[in-house]
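Possible regression after last week's pipeline update?

I re-ran a chain I had predicted before the update to compare outputs. Posting the input and the new output here so someone can diff against the archived version. Not blocking, just want to make sure nothing changed silently.
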Amino acid sequence: MRQNKLLTKRKYMHGLQCPKYLWVTFGAPGLIPEPDIVAEYRIKERKLVGELVQQLYPGGMEVPIEDFADHIEQTKALIKQRKLIFEAGILADNIYSKIDILEPVDNNSWDIIDIKNATDIKAEYISEISFQKFCCQKAGLNIKKCFIIYINKDYRGKSAIMTQG
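New output (post-update):
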């Protein structure tokens, strides 16, 4: 399946903010500008926060995302092995989501953990994690709980990461 025809979390969130932007994403993707230097900085910052959070979950397996089809297949293999997965790629029909942390719980359930480079919870984060949960359930996963991890700006010490369930 062609990636540009998939409904992703990013496209979904853009569609909630501006339905015309969602149409352009599918109908005329060439009109969307490339990320500017600020967007690139935010991407690097998010990656750094993600790496810090991963240290809280030893033994997790990171799935490389360079090759889309391989990303999906490696995720499926790790799900079968019931491994804790960083950057899990879930594809169900034409819906795709990348899950920051997919954690096995109980006998046949999973928790979704979404990492945010922010100091508080925004309403849009609930929509994002809801999309991720929908995608996972559509792919056949039983999702028990969803969590949002964000930065505790008031903490002074070893780790400034907080979890919101």
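Follow-up from reviewer: compared with the archived run. The CA atoms of residues 15 and 21 lie 6 Å apart. Marking as no regression found.
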